[in-house]
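Section 3.1 - Work completed
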Amino acid sequence: MKSIYLDYAATTPIDPRVAKAMLPWFSEKFGNTMSLHSFGQEAKASLEENREKIASLINAKPSEIIFTGSATESNNLTLKGIALANKNKGNRIIISSIEHPCIMEAAKWLEGQGFEITRLKVDKYGLVNPIDVEAAIKPETILVSIIHASNEIGAIQPISEIGKICREKGVLFHTDAVQSFGKITIDVNKMNIDLLTASSHKMYGPKGAALLFVRQGVKITPLLHGGGQEKGLRSSTVNLPAIVGFAKACEIYKKEGSKESQRIIKLRDKLIKGILNKIRGSHLNGSPQKRLANNVNFWFELVEGESIVIQLDLLGVATSTGSACSSAKLEPSHVLLAIGLKPEQAHGSLRLTLGRWTKESDISFVLRVLPKIIKNLRKISPFK
């Protein structure tokens, strides 16, 4: 049976070059970065060298990169840490209605602590209007957090424009760049970004390593207290093997990212065009132009997304419906509802995300089998 992985937005396999770079740091070089002896100092030197490599990818200073264990941790540290550090200035935070669940849930928690959350609407393509951001900023607003590119529908937000507005209004600006980091060029200075979240396992690095860029001078209250690692903002022994892998993944993207992106765009467009042409009642979710190079998201009339995912999996094709982080839930995706889909339409969604090892033959296979799957599921559809 075929084995085709089209769920790169959920997680990516580790690039063999990344795994090779990590290997010595599990056994031969195992020092704690806080230790004074040579083992510890070797580890400390590696940590700072890799911090520099990663910082250069977004034009940040190495001292502005804080390593965490996951994007969820980075996003929670941002919202809660900024809220706690600035509660004397104000209690309002602005997010979009299509944020990742970790932003949505952190915001909900803050509401319970007396903070006010403004959730901005998006258009039918899932895009935030910068004018709406400007209108929503009040004197009590302390943070704006807008996802750079949607994990579900691939919509790329006008981050530079939003950042410029926030800078002019004197409000901190954070972006969850988990899906865009390692796919789109990011310059935190040109884009007026004060805080940024990124994750290793979305760009062919290992799980267990992520970062939070915190612009110099930004005050943030830590959530973890202990040994004072990472400038006191994230106490915990750092996961050095994973950070080494993260940096290697960044290095590979720097050299190969542009060429890889062009290849993937051709495959993505072939898949979108093929589905629209071959399957009646198929609808593309998100913007046809302002979308990630690797993201394809559709909803199909009169079928359930879960059924499509299962049928494709039986043929060896891995895909998802809604967000992989919350796809076990039975509720329709909040992102698809936000772009105007009805619950029954949102339930008929399918996300296919491409990556480094996606071949043209994989796309051709999906275009061959998917129309039959949709046709058969419609015959037994409860939505008729």
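Second construct:
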Amino acid sequence: MNPQRLIHCYSPKGGSGKTTLALNLAGGAAAHELRVLVVDYDPNGNDGGALRWASQARDCERSPAFMVSPAMPRRQDDFDLILIDHPPGRPARVTEGQVIIPTTLDPGTYFSCRRALDVLRKRKPLLVANRVRLDRAEPRRLLAQLPGTIAIGDRAIYASAYGIGATIYDDDAGLRNAQAARAEFEPVIDAVLARAGFPVRVPKVAA
């Protein structure tokens, strides 16, 4: 597998939105007709990570467009993209591949993000601001100090989707404002696919 097709969603601080980012990135990549796996490395994942999301999907009798696993597959070439949802802490398992660092742009998460950026700077991580309220002065001030960061708004759709084991790319989920959320999230998809060497295409949407 091309190393750039292995994507690490990492932050040293919990609550930064790694799981939401990984799941919706997987949903967007699957909408581009890619074979996607999400690996949940968080030991507490059953209580709120990607594995819990997969359990919610089963309970709601949903069939996700991608796979979720607690471990790396033996045959990585069976997938076009593998996303790893890392636990908070030191980046010991952030090996080769792309790195995405989310931050919620509150002071604590912001400074954790800066520390992670300093440690992983040579990897040229993609920064994503999650659950951002740009109508407030403090998030705007912190965002201005992270040039090139993609900002994702604080939308209720992300929690709603997680609760039923869906992503914002699932048309059959009946989620409100899904199109607006996708339009905002698409720069993340574009950046990851470009780094992975895939042509950026218009995602296939069910009629």
